[in-house]
């Protein structure tokens, strides 16, 4: 398994280098349908007269404000690793209908409502970070967040990494409420993934209890056809093989050697849950 990470790193670097100068299309997670409602993710999002950062500011909207997508503009703005179109929107404010343009990166990738709370998932920024395996290399890392809002008030927020721009081809946000960890009201799952081989996808589980969000260890999955793969998943108490008041991180890796023979590696980590926090057993 010692050769897998260097191979994966070099493969990823090659893809990044090939796409860096030609990556002028928007990240897929920021593609929103016309005539569909969306939510503002970035608090204080500016609404402009035209699709340009230098255009006149007409208004600003807070997190969780509902807007209607009228039209996608072809203009793309890049901030860090986030690339998104501008959108013409309409919204209600002070009893009146207003219109303007918003940058797609300030909209929620996904949102859900449950038990009187609004949950939103979105991307917040890009940071420079040293690679763990190659400290001399600096990579750009996207930071995402999940927010919970009650009425007009932000109750809590947790942040986490989601890889580089190549991992933002697809995103989902769901509520999974049947995992049976004690004293947990809801389990949220935010996912981003890439479309090409060798591009990692990330699953971020977030627990909600007593108006607090608790981020679990992040899961990463990546593979290249039948040459290699690395997969991670959680086994919760209600799942087959699960145990009470704990969740298990299951990891499996496979790579083929130069004689096309499969080498597999499996591992389990158990995290104990004490109804308010978790720790590695």
UniProtKB/TrEMBL annotation:
It comes from the Bacteria. Gene3D superfamilies: SH3 Domains. This is SH3 domain-containing protein. It comes from Chryseobacterium nepalense.
């Amino acid at each position: 398994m010692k050769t897998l990470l260097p191979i994966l790193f070099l493969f990823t670097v090659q893809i990044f280098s090939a796409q860096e100068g030609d990556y002028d299309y928007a990240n897929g997670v920021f593609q929103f349908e016309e005539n569909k409602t969306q939510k503002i993710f970035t608090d204080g999002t500016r609404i402009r007269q035209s699709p340009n950062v230098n255009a006149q500011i007409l208004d600003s909207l807070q997190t969780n404000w509902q807007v209607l997508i009228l039209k996608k503009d072809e203009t793309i703005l890049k901030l860090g690793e986030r690339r998104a179109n501008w959108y013409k929107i309409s919204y209600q404010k002070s009893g009146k209908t207003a219109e303007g343009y918003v940058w797609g990166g300030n909209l929620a990738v996904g949102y859900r409502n449950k038990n009187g709370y609004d949950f939103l998932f979105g991307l917040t920024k890009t940071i420079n970070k040293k690679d763990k395996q190659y400290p001399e290399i600096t990579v750009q890392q996207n930071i995402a967040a999940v927010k919970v809002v009650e009425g007009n008030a932000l109750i809590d927020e947790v942040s986490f990494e989601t890889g580089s721009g190549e991992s933002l081809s697809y995103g989902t946000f769901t509520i999974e409420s049947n995992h049976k960890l004690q004293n947990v009201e809801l389990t949220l799952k935010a996912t981003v993934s890439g479309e090409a081989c060798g591009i990692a996808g990330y699953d971020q589980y977030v627990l909600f209890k007593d108006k607090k969000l608790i981020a679990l260890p992040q899961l990463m999955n990546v593979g290249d056809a039948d040459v290699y793969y690395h997969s991670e998943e959680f086994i919760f108490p209600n799942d087959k093989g699960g145990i009470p008041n704990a969740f298990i991180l299951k990891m499996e890796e496979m790579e083929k050697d130069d004689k096309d023979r499969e080498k597999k590696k499996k591992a389990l980590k158990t995290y104990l849950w004490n109804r308010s926090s978790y720790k590695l057993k």
